[in-house]
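Reviewers asked in the last cycle whether our approach scales beyond single polypeptides. To address this, we selected a multi-component target totalling 227 residues and predicted its structure end to end. The input consisted of the following lines:
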Amino acid sequence: NAGVMQNPRHLVRRRGQEARLRCSPMKGHSHVYWYRQLPEEGLKFMVYLQKENIIDESGMPKERFSAEFPKEGPSILRIQQVVRGDSAAYFCASSQTGRYSYNSPLHFGNGTRLTVT
Amino acid sequence: KNEVEQSPQNLTAQEGEFITINCSYSVGISALHWLQQHPGGGIVSLFMLSSGKKKHGRLIATINIQEKHSSLHITASHPRDSAVYICAVGKETSGSRLTFGEGTQLTVNP
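The resulting structure, written as structure tokens, was:
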């Protein structure tokens, strides 16, 4: 049973390009969360999605960032017109239900390290 | 003031020492998580707890809901325990998203 899969592991983009980060949750998990870790800072919540629905996007920057979790396929975090300040590690986590419990723990992926040059 | 505070920020220990990392929070929570992050690596969930104490191998996590405080203990520390340890809470009011502490960088020397 594969864990949460994120790709790519490393992504380099020039300023102004688009970045697409993918997250495949664990099998049977329908709840996906995206977190960002800026250099020398702690993790910050970005968005919480269920299949085909955005549940909570209160942590997403107002512009250039979007996320989706389609019925089929991975969750995508999309950053348009990247700037140097977007350089960070982006982590995805998944769970079976929306409320963590001993029987529904949270699993993290290995992250995507985005570098904007 | 951050809603989740960890101490210490950095901790250096000798192999075999008993280690304690503390986490205090100022909000009502549904659960508290301890996470481990290795350099350049992913994040591993060590514990999720809402009351009492949990033990897994050499790791022990405790939580005191009344005092809004949790501790992570490592017994007989080993260099491979060197990592960043992160405390995170699921707030009662914010559903499923986590709020994180800044992390504690632990270095265990042989």
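The longest strand of chain A covers residues 43-50. We regard this as preliminary and will revisit it once experimental data from Aim 1 are available.
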